[in-house]
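Review form for a predicted model. The reviewer records the input and the model, then writes brief findings.
Reviewer: anonymous (R2)
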Amino acid sequence: MTGMTSTARPLLNRRLAEFGTTIFAEMSALAAATGSINLGQGFPDTDGPEEIREAAVRALRDGRGNQYPPGPGVPELRTAIAAHQLRRYGLSYDPDTEVLVTAGATEAIAAALLALLEPGDEVVALEPYYDSYAASIALAGGRRVPVTLRPHEGRFRLDLDELRAAVTDRTRLLLINTPHNPTGTVLTRAELAAIAELAVERDLLVVTDEVYEHLVFDDAEHLPLAAFPGMRERTVTIGSAGKTYSFTGWKVGWVTAAPGLVSAVRSAKQFLTYVSAGPFQYAVAEALALPDSYYDDLRRSLRERRDILATGLAEAGFEVFRPAGTYFVTTDIRPLGEKDGFAFCRALPERAGVVAIPNAVFYDDREAGAPFVRFAFCKKEDVLREAAARLRAM
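Model under review:
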């Protein structure tokens, strides 16, 4: 007899049993199969600045990064990350002991949680949350405790009393994301101050995902949690080049934190990818030195595209939560007579030639997320106008 030995034990580790193929892979495949406009997965349909792409080419040709880069990241990039944090937020980090380069923010999240959690530790996270959060907590043997952001007066809001009530003696860590994917909420100064006070009072670690830090609109302002009183020594801040510079395939992310925290995260990270993106690290170092005008232009461009899509969605009958940050618009499908986001999104390519993501995949409480659907607006303006026209015709 040939083939796999029969066993009653499932092949997949039980911690990952609830996680199948990601919804992004499923919906992107559906977009390709139907020729639909893909407003599901959050990647731009144009590359970032030409001078940064050329910086990567230059690094390749000069032989910089073609072999294993240093484990913590190339010195030029670590120095540039530290300079960025100081220039933008007044946060001073030592490039040698307080900065770690990762294979995108996804690895940074996984490495941080694997490093900092023991089996049974509770992690309080804002729901809906990016799907890798749940998987990484599970891999580390932790227990996720969701605090649900709920719609109120046109935005998704954090209930600070609910957050405080979620913390128990078993809570090890708060996992915070602002600007928030998928809702587009940007936590306010008052909300962040309350989170900081809670973390200090209960002596909690905090991992904060700030990859959309430069993608904020209107009157919203991104404030790093590490800058609040008592937070510098207990906060792991995660950043990424992909969203800011529109090179998502390069997978260059980073962690900034106190030396003990960086050392712990590095201990886990070195057994995941060890190193990655050698030549791209040099290019991202140059990107981080771009002038403020780059970020101003990026925000203006994305705000215009947000408004094209949000207006089109509203005209098509969706209830639209206009985001203050990120490049996603969350909508409520109930005004269309729909209530099941999964069914709606799986039928939408045939109905309208557009792909979106059901927000329920980001919830433990699937019912709470059932009527919400996310669309990405990091696409060309003519693509967004065509998508809006197709949705209105539906």
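Findings: The chain has a mean pLDDT of 95.
Further findings: The chain is about 40% helix and 15% strand.
Recommendation: see findings above.
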